Protein backbone atom coordinates (compact mmCIF):
# COMPACT_ATOMS: atom_id res chain seq x y z
CA UNK A 1 0.00 0.00 0.00
CA UNK A 2 1.29 3.46 -0.86
CA UNK A 3 0.27 5.22 2.33
CA UNK A 4 -0.17 4.17 5.89
CA UNK A 5 -3.18 6.38 6.42
CA UNK A 6 -5.08 6.74 9.64
CA UNK A 7 -8.10 4.48 9.77
CA UNK A 8 -10.53 7.34 10.27
CA UNK A 9 -14.23 6.75 10.94
CA UNK A 10 -16.23 3.94 9.37
CA UNK A 11 -19.76 4.32 8.07
CA UNK A 12 -22.18 1.79 9.51
CA UNK A 13 -23.21 -1.10 7.32
CA UNK A 14 -26.77 0.10 6.80
CA UNK A 15 -28.51 3.42 7.07
CA UNK A 16 -31.86 1.69 7.57
CA UNK A 17 -34.04 -0.35 5.29
CA UNK A 18 -32.99 -2.87 2.70
CA UNK A 19 -29.36 -2.77 1.63
CA UNK A 20 -29.12 -1.37 -1.97
CA UNK A 21 -27.47 -3.46 -4.65
CA UNK A 22 -24.07 -2.46 -6.03
CA UNK A 23 -25.40 -2.73 -9.60
CA UNK A 24 -28.04 -0.08 -8.87
CA UNK A 25 -25.45 2.21 -7.31
CA UNK A 26 -23.17 1.74 -10.33
CA UNK A 27 -26.01 2.49 -12.76
CA UNK A 28 -27.02 5.68 -10.94
CA UNK A 29 -23.41 6.85 -10.66
CA UNK A 30 -22.84 6.24 -14.38
CA UNK A 31 -26.03 8.13 -15.19
CA UNK A 32 -24.91 11.02 -12.99
CA UNK A 33 -21.53 11.13 -14.68
CA UNK A 34 -23.17 11.17 -18.13
CA UNK A 35 -25.67 13.88 -17.16
CA UNK A 36 -23.03 16.16 -15.66
CA UNK A 37 -20.69 15.63 -18.62
CA UNK A 38 -23.59 16.47 -20.93
CA UNK A 39 -23.93 19.79 -19.11
CA UNK A 40 -20.16 20.31 -19.05
CA UNK A 41 -20.02 20.06 -22.86
CA UNK A 42 -22.91 22.43 -23.69
CA UNK A 43 -20.77 25.30 -24.98
CA UNK A 44 -18.60 23.33 -27.39
CA UNK A 45 -21.32 22.50 -29.98
CA UNK A 46 -22.53 26.12 -29.90
CA UNK A 47 -19.03 27.56 -30.37
CA UNK A 48 -19.43 28.23 -34.13
CA UNK A 49 -22.78 29.96 -33.53
CA UNK A 50 -21.31 32.20 -30.84
CA UNK A 51 -18.32 32.93 -33.08
CA UNK A 52 -20.67 34.19 -35.78
CA UNK A 53 -23.13 36.09 -33.59
CA UNK A 54 -20.51 37.72 -31.35
CA UNK A 55 -17.81 38.07 -34.06
CA UNK A 56 -15.27 36.08 -32.06
CA UNK A 57 -11.76 35.35 -33.23
CA UNK A 58 -10.52 31.76 -33.51
CA UNK A 59 -8.61 32.20 -30.26
CA UNK A 60 -11.66 33.58 -28.44
CA UNK A 61 -13.76 30.65 -29.64
CA UNK A 62 -11.10 28.21 -28.46
CA UNK A 63 -10.94 29.99 -25.10
CA UNK A 64 -14.71 29.76 -24.73
CA UNK A 65 -14.61 25.99 -25.22
CA UNK A 66 -11.48 25.51 -23.10
CA UNK A 67 -12.57 27.34 -19.93
CA UNK A 68 -15.16 24.76 -18.73
CA UNK A 69 -12.80 21.90 -19.54
CA UNK A 70 -9.83 23.39 -17.68
CA UNK A 71 -11.93 24.36 -14.65
CA UNK A 72 -13.63 20.97 -14.63
CA UNK A 73 -10.27 19.23 -14.79
CA UNK A 74 -8.60 21.24 -12.02
CA UNK A 75 -11.77 21.19 -9.93
CA UNK A 76 -11.53 17.42 -9.68
CA UNK A 77 -8.67 17.78 -7.21
CA UNK A 78 -10.65 19.35 -4.33
CA UNK A 79 -13.89 17.55 -5.29
CA UNK A 80 -12.11 14.19 -5.16
CA UNK A 81 -10.82 14.95 -1.67
CA UNK A 82 -14.28 16.11 -0.56
CA UNK A 83 -15.76 12.88 -1.95
CA UNK A 84 -13.45 10.88 0.30
CA UNK A 85 -14.85 12.84 3.24
CA UNK A 86 -18.57 13.15 2.45
CA UNK A 87 -19.19 10.27 0.04
CA UNK A 88 -21.01 10.06 -3.28
CA UNK A 89 -24.44 10.12 -1.65
CA UNK A 90 -23.85 13.77 -0.72
CA UNK A 91 -21.49 14.87 -3.49
CA UNK A 92 -23.42 13.61 -6.55
CA UNK A 93 -26.59 15.59 -5.72
CA UNK A 94 -24.48 18.58 -4.64
CA UNK A 95 -22.41 18.75 -7.84
CA UNK A 96 -25.52 18.22 -9.99
CA UNK A 97 -27.50 20.91 -8.19
CA UNK A 98 -24.59 23.36 -8.30
CA UNK A 99 -24.24 22.85 -12.07
CA UNK A 100 -27.86 23.97 -12.58
CA UNK A 101 -26.92 27.57 -11.68
CA UNK A 102 -24.43 28.23 -14.54
CA UNK A 103 -26.61 26.24 -16.96
CA UNK A 104 -29.61 28.51 -16.29
CA UNK A 105 -27.41 31.60 -16.30
CA UNK A 106 -25.97 30.76 -19.72
CA UNK A 107 -29.34 29.88 -21.20
CA UNK A 108 -31.27 32.88 -19.91
CA UNK A 109 -28.78 35.73 -19.48
CA UNK A 110 -25.15 34.83 -20.12
CA UNK A 111 -24.88 34.41 -23.88
CA UNK A 112 -24.95 38.02 -25.08
CA UNK A 113 -21.24 38.85 -24.63
CA UNK A 114 -17.96 36.97 -24.55
CA UNK A 115 -17.30 38.02 -20.94
CA UNK A 116 -20.69 36.70 -19.84
CA UNK A 117 -20.05 33.41 -21.63
CA UNK A 118 -16.63 33.04 -20.03
CA UNK A 119 -18.07 33.67 -16.57
CA UNK A 120 -20.79 31.10 -17.15
CA UNK A 121 -18.32 28.68 -18.70
CA UNK A 122 -16.05 28.99 -15.66
CA UNK A 123 -18.79 27.78 -13.31
CA UNK A 124 -20.06 25.27 -15.87
CA UNK A 125 -16.78 23.50 -15.17
CA UNK A 126 -18.38 22.21 -11.95
CA UNK A 127 -20.12 19.54 -14.03
CA UNK A 128 -16.78 18.15 -15.14
CA UNK A 129 -15.82 17.35 -11.55
CA UNK A 130 -18.45 14.57 -11.29
CA UNK A 131 -15.83 12.08 -12.46
CA UNK A 132 -13.89 12.53 -9.21
CA UNK A 133 -17.07 11.78 -7.24
CA UNK A 134 -17.97 8.59 -9.05
CA UNK A 135 -14.67 6.69 -9.05
CA UNK A 136 -14.29 6.45 -5.24
CA UNK A 137 -18.05 5.89 -4.86
CA UNK A 138 -18.11 2.97 -7.31
CA UNK A 139 -14.79 1.60 -6.08
CA UNK A 140 -16.10 1.34 -2.52
CA UNK A 141 -19.05 -0.83 -3.64
CA UNK A 142 -16.92 -3.52 -5.34
CA UNK A 143 -14.12 -5.85 -4.21
CA UNK A 144 -10.70 -5.40 -5.84
CA UNK A 145 -11.24 -8.31 -8.26
CA UNK A 146 -14.27 -6.56 -9.82
CA UNK A 147 -13.36 -2.90 -9.55
CA UNK A 148 -11.76 -2.66 -12.98
CA UNK A 149 -14.96 -3.57 -14.80
CA UNK A 150 -17.13 -1.47 -12.47
CA UNK A 151 -15.01 1.66 -12.87
CA UNK A 152 -14.76 1.02 -16.61
CA UNK A 153 -18.56 0.91 -16.88
CA UNK A 154 -18.77 4.12 -14.87
CA UNK A 155 -16.17 5.71 -17.15
CA UNK A 156 -18.43 5.08 -20.16
CA UNK A 157 -20.47 7.98 -18.79
CA UNK A 158 -18.04 10.23 -20.62
CA UNK A 159 -20.35 9.51 -23.56
CA UNK A 160 -22.46 12.34 -22.14
CA UNK A 161 -20.33 14.66 -24.26
CA UNK A 162 -21.59 12.83 -27.35
CA UNK A 163 -25.20 13.35 -26.19
CA UNK A 164 -24.47 17.06 -25.94
CA UNK A 165 -22.95 17.13 -29.42
CA UNK A 166 -25.95 15.35 -30.93
CA UNK A 167 -28.72 17.34 -29.20
CA UNK A 168 -27.56 20.86 -28.31
CA UNK A 169 -27.46 22.45 -31.76
CA UNK A 170 -30.65 20.70 -32.89
CA UNK A 171 -32.58 21.93 -29.84
CA UNK A 172 -31.20 25.46 -30.21
CA UNK A 173 -32.14 25.67 -33.90
CA UNK A 174 -35.59 24.18 -33.43
CA UNK A 175 -36.73 25.95 -30.26
CA UNK A 176 -34.31 28.78 -29.49
CA UNK A 177 -30.89 29.13 -27.88
CA UNK A 178 -32.21 28.85 -24.31
CA UNK A 179 -33.88 25.48 -24.91
CA UNK A 180 -30.92 23.08 -24.54
CA UNK A 181 -29.92 24.87 -21.33
CA UNK A 182 -33.44 24.70 -19.89
CA UNK A 183 -33.72 21.02 -20.79
CA UNK A 184 -30.34 20.38 -19.21
CA UNK A 185 -31.30 22.21 -16.01
CA UNK A 186 -34.41 20.06 -15.74
CA UNK A 187 -32.46 16.83 -16.25
CA UNK A 188 -29.89 17.88 -13.63
CA UNK A 189 -32.63 18.73 -11.13
CA UNK A 190 -34.37 15.38 -11.60
CA UNK A 191 -31.10 13.51 -11.22
CA UNK A 192 -30.11 15.46 -8.10
CA UNK A 193 -33.40 14.53 -6.41
CA UNK A 194 -33.19 10.86 -7.47
CA UNK A 195 -29.57 10.63 -6.34
CA UNK A 196 -30.37 12.14 -2.94
CA UNK A 197 -33.25 9.71 -2.41
CA UNK A 198 -31.73 6.51 -3.83
CA UNK A 199 -27.91 6.69 -3.63
CA UNK A 200 -26.23 5.17 -0.57
CA UNK A 201 -22.57 4.97 0.31
CA UNK A 202 -21.07 1.52 0.63
CA UNK A 203 -21.23 -0.14 4.05
CA UNK A 204 -17.97 0.10 5.94
CA UNK A 205 -16.75 3.11 3.94
CA UNK A 206 -13.76 4.66 5.68
CA UNK A 207 -14.05 8.41 6.26
CA UNK A 208 -10.66 10.15 6.53
CA UNK A 209 -10.15 12.16 9.70
CA UNK A 210 -7.35 14.45 8.48
CA UNK A 211 -8.06 18.01 7.24
CA UNK A 212 -8.52 18.55 3.50
CA UNK A 213 -5.18 20.36 3.08
CA UNK A 214 -3.31 17.56 4.86
CA UNK A 215 -4.91 14.88 2.71
CA UNK A 216 -4.21 16.74 -0.52
CA UNK A 217 -0.57 17.25 0.45
CA UNK A 218 -0.29 13.55 1.25
CA UNK A 219 -1.94 12.65 -2.05
CA UNK A 220 0.67 14.58 -4.03
CA UNK A 221 3.41 12.63 -2.25
CA UNK A 222 2.01 9.24 -3.26
CA UNK A 223 3.88 7.46 -6.09
CA UNK A 224 0.57 6.09 -7.43
CA UNK A 225 -0.68 9.64 -7.95
CA UNK A 226 2.15 10.56 -10.30
CA UNK A 227 2.35 7.19 -12.01
CA UNK A 228 -1.37 7.15 -12.81
CA UNK A 229 -1.40 10.85 -13.72
CA UNK A 230 1.29 10.37 -16.35
CA UNK A 231 -0.47 7.38 -17.88
CA UNK A 232 -3.91 9.01 -17.81
CA UNK A 233 -2.55 12.17 -19.40
CA UNK A 234 -1.46 10.02 -22.34
CA UNK A 235 -4.48 7.67 -22.51
CA UNK A 236 -7.43 9.90 -21.70
CA UNK A 237 -5.57 13.01 -22.84
CA UNK A 238 -5.09 11.36 -26.22
CA UNK A 239 -8.80 10.60 -26.42
CA UNK A 240 -9.73 14.19 -25.54
CA UNK A 241 -7.21 15.58 -28.02
CA UNK A 242 -8.53 13.49 -30.91
CA UNK A 243 -12.16 14.19 -30.04
CA UNK A 244 -11.39 17.92 -30.12
CA UNK A 245 -8.96 18.08 -33.04
CA UNK A 246 -9.84 15.15 -35.31
CA UNK A 247 -12.42 17.06 -37.42
CA UNK A 248 -9.87 19.81 -38.09
CA UNK A 249 -7.17 17.26 -38.90
CA UNK A 250 -9.38 15.34 -41.34
CA UNK A 251 -10.68 18.48 -43.01
CA UNK A 252 -7.23 20.06 -43.38
CA UNK A 253 -5.12 16.95 -43.96
CA UNK A 254 -7.52 14.97 -46.16
CA UNK A 255 -9.91 17.59 -47.51
CA UNK A 256 -13.01 15.95 -46.07
CA UNK A 257 -16.27 17.85 -45.78
CA UNK A 258 -17.12 19.11 -42.30
CA UNK A 259 -20.04 16.71 -41.93
CA UNK A 260 -17.95 13.70 -42.98
CA UNK A 261 -15.14 14.69 -40.61
CA UNK A 262 -17.62 15.12 -37.74
CA UNK A 263 -19.15 11.69 -38.40
CA UNK A 264 -15.73 10.04 -38.35
CA UNK A 265 -14.93 11.81 -35.09
CA UNK A 266 -18.20 10.49 -33.63
CA UNK A 267 -17.18 6.96 -34.60
CA UNK A 268 -13.79 7.47 -32.91
CA UNK A 269 -15.46 8.70 -29.70
CA UNK A 270 -18.05 5.90 -29.66
CA UNK A 271 -15.43 3.17 -30.00
CA UNK A 272 -13.28 4.70 -27.26
CA UNK A 273 -16.28 4.93 -24.91
CA UNK A 274 -17.27 1.30 -25.57
CA UNK A 275 -13.71 0.06 -25.02
CA UNK A 276 -13.31 1.76 -21.64
CA UNK A 277 -15.29 -0.88 -19.68
CA UNK A 278 -13.59 -3.58 -21.77
CA UNK A 279 -10.24 -2.23 -20.56
CA UNK A 280 -11.46 -2.40 -16.97
CA UNK A 281 -12.79 -5.94 -17.43
CA UNK A 282 -9.53 -7.13 -18.95
CA UNK A 283 -7.62 -5.46 -16.10
CA UNK A 284 -9.56 -7.58 -13.61
CA UNK A 285 -8.50 -10.72 -15.46
CA UNK A 286 -4.94 -10.17 -16.65
CA UNK A 287 -3.88 -7.09 -14.69
CA UNK A 288 -4.00 -3.36 -15.51
CA UNK A 289 -0.33 -3.07 -16.47
CA UNK A 290 -0.66 -5.69 -19.21
CA UNK A 291 -3.72 -3.92 -20.61
CA UNK A 292 -1.96 -0.55 -20.45
CA UNK A 293 1.19 -1.92 -22.06
CA UNK A 294 -0.76 -3.46 -24.93
CA UNK A 295 -2.91 -0.34 -25.40
CA UNK A 296 0.09 1.98 -25.51
CA UNK A 297 1.85 -0.32 -27.98
CA UNK A 298 -1.19 -0.13 -30.28
CA UNK A 299 -1.19 3.68 -30.01
CA UNK A 300 2.52 3.72 -30.83
CA UNK A 301 2.03 1.68 -34.01
CA UNK A 302 -1.13 3.54 -35.03
CA UNK A 303 0.43 6.98 -34.60
CA UNK A 304 3.60 5.90 -36.42
CA UNK A 305 1.55 4.64 -39.37
CA UNK A 306 -0.58 7.78 -39.45
CA UNK A 307 2.51 10.00 -39.36
CA UNK A 308 3.02 9.10 -43.03
CA UNK A 309 -0.55 10.29 -43.86
CA UNK A 310 -1.68 7.09 -45.57
CA UNK A 311 -4.92 6.84 -47.51
CA UNK A 312 -7.95 6.80 -45.24
CA UNK A 313 -9.33 3.80 -47.06
CA UNK A 314 -8.46 1.50 -45.46
CA UNK A 315 -5.11 2.04 -43.67
CA UNK A 316 -5.75 5.44 -42.13
CA UNK A 317 -9.20 4.43 -40.87
CA UNK A 318 -7.77 1.25 -39.35
CA UNK A 319 -5.01 3.23 -37.62
CA UNK A 320 -7.45 5.73 -36.11
CA UNK A 321 -9.96 3.12 -34.97
CA UNK A 322 -7.18 1.03 -33.44
CA UNK A 323 -5.96 4.07 -31.51
CA UNK A 324 -9.52 4.87 -30.40
CA UNK A 325 -10.03 1.40 -28.96
CA UNK A 326 -6.60 1.39 -27.33
CA UNK A 327 -7.03 4.82 -25.74
CA UNK A 328 -10.44 3.83 -24.36
CA UNK A 329 -9.17 0.54 -22.95
CA UNK A 330 -6.07 2.22 -21.56
CA UNK A 331 -8.16 4.85 -19.78
CA UNK A 332 -10.19 2.11 -18.11
CA UNK A 333 -7.03 0.27 -17.07
CA UNK A 334 -5.52 3.35 -15.39
CA UNK A 335 -8.28 3.50 -12.80
CA UNK A 336 -8.21 -0.25 -12.29
CA UNK A 337 -4.58 0.37 -11.34
CA UNK A 338 -5.58 3.22 -9.00
CA UNK A 339 -8.18 1.01 -7.30
CA UNK A 340 -5.48 -1.58 -6.57
CA UNK A 341 -2.79 0.83 -5.40
CA UNK A 342 -4.60 3.56 -3.47
CA UNK A 343 -5.94 3.09 0.06
CA UNK A 344 -9.77 3.12 0.18
CA UNK A 345 -9.94 6.49 1.96
CA UNK A 346 -7.58 8.13 -0.58
CA UNK A 347 -9.16 6.93 -3.84
CA UNK A 348 -11.14 10.16 -4.26
CA UNK A 349 -8.13 12.38 -3.69
CA UNK A 350 -5.95 10.37 -6.07
CA UNK A 351 -8.75 10.24 -8.64
CA UNK A 352 -9.10 14.02 -8.51
CA UNK A 353 -5.44 14.60 -9.34
CA UNK A 354 -5.31 11.86 -11.98
CA UNK A 355 -8.53 13.07 -13.59
CA UNK A 356 -7.17 16.60 -13.73
CA UNK A 357 -4.02 15.34 -15.46
CA UNK A 358 -6.10 13.51 -18.05
CA UNK A 359 -8.30 16.50 -18.81
CA UNK A 360 -5.39 18.92 -19.07
CA UNK A 361 -3.38 16.41 -21.10
CA UNK A 362 -5.96 16.63 -23.84
CA UNK A 363 -5.17 20.26 -24.62
CA UNK A 364 -1.45 19.96 -25.24
CA UNK A 365 -1.59 17.77 -28.40
CA UNK A 366 -3.97 20.06 -30.35
CA UNK A 367 -1.74 23.05 -29.62
CA UNK A 368 1.33 21.10 -30.72
CA UNK A 369 -0.40 19.78 -33.84
CA UNK A 370 -1.64 23.23 -34.82
CA UNK A 371 1.75 24.83 -34.21
CA UNK A 372 3.64 22.20 -36.19
CA UNK A 373 1.18 22.36 -39.07
CA UNK A 374 1.55 26.14 -39.16
CA UNK A 375 5.34 25.83 -39.23
CA UNK A 376 5.79 22.86 -41.58
CA UNK A 377 2.45 22.40 -43.36
CA UNK A 378 2.17 18.78 -42.17
CA UNK A 379 0.76 16.88 -39.21
CA UNK A 380 3.28 14.05 -39.62
CA UNK A 381 5.77 15.33 -37.04
CA UNK A 382 3.03 15.76 -34.43
CA UNK A 383 1.86 12.18 -34.88
CA UNK A 384 5.46 10.98 -34.75
CA UNK A 385 5.80 12.74 -31.38
CA UNK A 386 2.65 10.98 -30.19
CA UNK A 387 4.19 7.64 -31.18
CA UNK A 388 7.33 8.45 -29.18
CA UNK A 389 5.34 9.52 -26.10
CA UNK A 390 3.19 6.37 -26.27
CA UNK A 391 6.28 4.18 -26.66
CA UNK A 392 7.99 5.83 -23.69
CA UNK A 393 4.81 5.39 -21.63
CA UNK A 394 4.66 1.72 -22.58
CA UNK A 395 8.24 1.25 -21.34
CA UNK A 396 7.37 3.15 -18.14
CA UNK A 397 4.39 0.84 -17.63
CA UNK A 398 6.42 -2.32 -18.22
CA UNK A 399 9.11 -1.27 -15.74
CA UNK A 400 8.21 1.23 -13.02
CA UNK A 401 4.44 0.70 -12.86
CA UNK A 402 4.61 -3.11 -13.11
CA UNK A 403 7.26 -3.24 -10.37
CA UNK A 404 5.17 -0.97 -8.14
CA UNK A 405 2.11 -3.18 -8.53
CA UNK A 406 4.05 -6.37 -7.81
CA UNK A 407 5.61 -5.01 -4.63
CA UNK A 408 2.47 -3.37 -3.20
CA UNK A 409 0.44 -4.82 -0.36
CA UNK A 410 -3.02 -5.95 -1.48
CA UNK A 411 -5.75 -3.58 -0.31
CA UNK A 412 -8.69 -5.31 1.36
CA UNK A 413 -12.31 -4.57 0.47
CA UNK A 414 -14.07 -2.61 3.21
Structural account:
This protein is mainly alpha-helical and 414 residues long. The protein is 79% helix and 1% strand. The chain contains 17 helices and 2 strands. It has helices at 22-40, 43-54, 58-86, 88-108, 114-124, 130-141, 144-155, 160-175, 178-198, 212-221, 223-254, 258-286, 288-306, 312-341, 347-361, 364-376, 380-407; strands at residues 9-10, 206-207. Strands 1-2 form a two-stranded antiparallel sheet. α1 runs parallel beside α7 (144-155), α1 (22-40) crosses α8 (160-175) and α11 (223-254) packs antiparallel against α17.
List the helices and strands and how they pair.
Elements: E1 9-10, H1 22-40, H2 43-54, H3 58-86, H4 88-108, H5 114-124, H6 130-141, H7 144-155, H8 160-175, H9 178-198, E2 206-207, H10 212-221, H11 223-254, H12 258-286, H13 288-306, H14 312-341, H15 347-361, H16 364-376, H17 380-407
What's the SSE pattern?
EHHHHHHHHHEHHHHHHHH
Q: Which value, in Å, is the CA radius of gyration?
A: 21 Å
Query: What general outline do the C-alpha atoms trace?
Result: globular
Strand content: under 5%
Amino acid sequence: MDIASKPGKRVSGREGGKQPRPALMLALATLGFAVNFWAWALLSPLGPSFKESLHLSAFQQALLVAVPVVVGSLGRIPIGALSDRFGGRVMFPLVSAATIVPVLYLGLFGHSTLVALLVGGFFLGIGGTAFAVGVPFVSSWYPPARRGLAIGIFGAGMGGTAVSALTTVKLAKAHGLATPFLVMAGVLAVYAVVAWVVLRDAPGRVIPSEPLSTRLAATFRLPVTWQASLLYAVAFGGYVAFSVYLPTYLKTGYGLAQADAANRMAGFVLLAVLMRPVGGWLSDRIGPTRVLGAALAVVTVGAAVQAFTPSLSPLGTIAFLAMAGALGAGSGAVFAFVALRAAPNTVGSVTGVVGAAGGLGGFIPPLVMGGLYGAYGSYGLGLALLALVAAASAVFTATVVTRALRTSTPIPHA
